[in-house]
TrEMBL record:
Residues 1-18 have a biased composition (Acidic residues). Residues 289-298 have a biased composition (Polar residues). Pfam families: DUF2043. GO terms for cellular component: chromosome. Residues 19-39, 110-121 have a biased composition (Basic and acidic residues). This is UV-stimulated scaffold protein A C-terminal domain-containing protein.
Length: 338
């Protein structure tokens, strides 16, 4: 047995091949030769001021030498980390150039821009916090889903029931908001002030246009337009109106002729066209008519709706509808009890 074991050991040793040592292999690369190997120069070790120890120096040099050996060994993890570190872009030290640039930009920013920003922030409307802002930028998987409760009846139920139904209106409510830009209400302070036939001025306070006198224009206390263009336009309209009406139909002229000749030329009829017609004189003008007060649109509708004949017709029509429904669904227990 011993002889066989010795033979196996000799065979194993024969399988190994002797490899000569690599010439110029240096596990530790000096600082002056790092540039030739394509390595960056090593930074000098930082030693804190006031704290120097003789015992810690050889330990740090040993650890540094061991780290360099690991980085040069391609089978070691330190070498892989060094390659990855070399491939990554070098970032500038924090709080150096960026902070200086931002501070310089903030100093150089003019006061006008700051004032403009403050004014815009003051004008910006303050919106109330709602569901659209609460779920802003989020996908809600359960939003808009309505759970339906299945019927517990034995057979009076549909065969297929969808437990969850998605409502699009509810999902849109979580993402949309209706904003109205109506503005503030400004009360109307101007009046129409157009001259009326009775000599007074129109007191209507429409915003842009009067329904009787057209577009509202600035006028003085006598009703005369302040702008020359408006005055010229009104004069032109007055002349055109007089041109359409013949002179002999002037009511004042006709009254004078009637007074001189004693013949009725119809001046009273012309006045009635423009003015109000005379109504029937009341027997007791100082008393209020109670029947006239009761004659309103509501009372007139009540007389028609609550008329006995109308009520009978409605009842007969409803009875006919009930009879048809009974004849159609009388064999179903769900409608028999209703």
């Amino acid at each position: 047995m011993k002889a066989s074991d010795d033979d196996d050991d000799d065979e194993d040793e024969d399988e190994f091949v002797e490899v000569p040592e690599k010439e110029g292999y240096e596990p530790h690369i000096p600082d002056h030769l790092r540039k030739e190997y394509g390595l960056e120069p090593r930074a000098p070790p930082e030693t804190p001021a006031g704290k120097t120890s003789t015992g810690a120096a050889p330990l740090s040099t040993r650890a540094r030498l061991k780290g360099n050996e690991d980085e040069l060994d391609p089978t070691c993890a330190a070498a892989t980390l060094k390659l990855i570190r070399d491939k990554l872009p070098k970032l500038p030290p924090p709080h150096t150039s960026d902070s200086a640039a931002t501070e310089a930009a903030a100093v150089e920013e003019p006061d006008s821009k700051r004032q403009k920003l403050e004014e815009e922030r003051a004008k910006a409307p303050l919106m109330p916090f709602g569901l659209d802002l609460h779920y802003w930028g989020q996908d809600q998987p359960s939003a808009g889903k309505i759970l339906k409760f299945t019927s517990e009846h034995r057979f009076w139920a549909p065969s297929e029931v969808e437990e969850e139904v998605e409502n699009k209106e509810i999902t849109e409510m979580l993402k949309t908001r209706y904003i109205t830009f109506a503005g503030k209400f400004e009360p109307v302070k101007h009046k129409c002030r157009a001259p009326m036939p009775n000599g007074s001025l129109c007191e209507r306070q429409d915003r842009i246009k009067c329904p009787f006198h057209g577009k509202i224009i600035p006028r003085d206390e006598a009703g005369i337009p302040l702008n020359a263009e408006d005055r010229a336009r009104e004069e032109k309209m007055r002349f055109e109106k007089q041109a359409t009406q013949p002179e002999w139909q002037d009511p004042e002229f006709m009254r004078e002729v009637e007074a001189a000749t004693g013949v009725d030329l119809g001046s009273s009829k012309n006045n009635e066209k423009g003015g109000k017609k005379k109504g029937k004189k009341k027997k007791y003008p100082n008393l209020t008519d109670l029947k006239q007060q009761a004659n309103t649109s509501r009372s007139r509708l009540e007389k028609k709706v609550f008329n006995k004949g109308a009520m009978k017709r409605v009842v007969n029509a409803m009875n006919r509808v009930d009879q048809r429904k009974h004849e159609k669904f009388a064999n179903q227990f769900n409608y028999a009890l209703n």
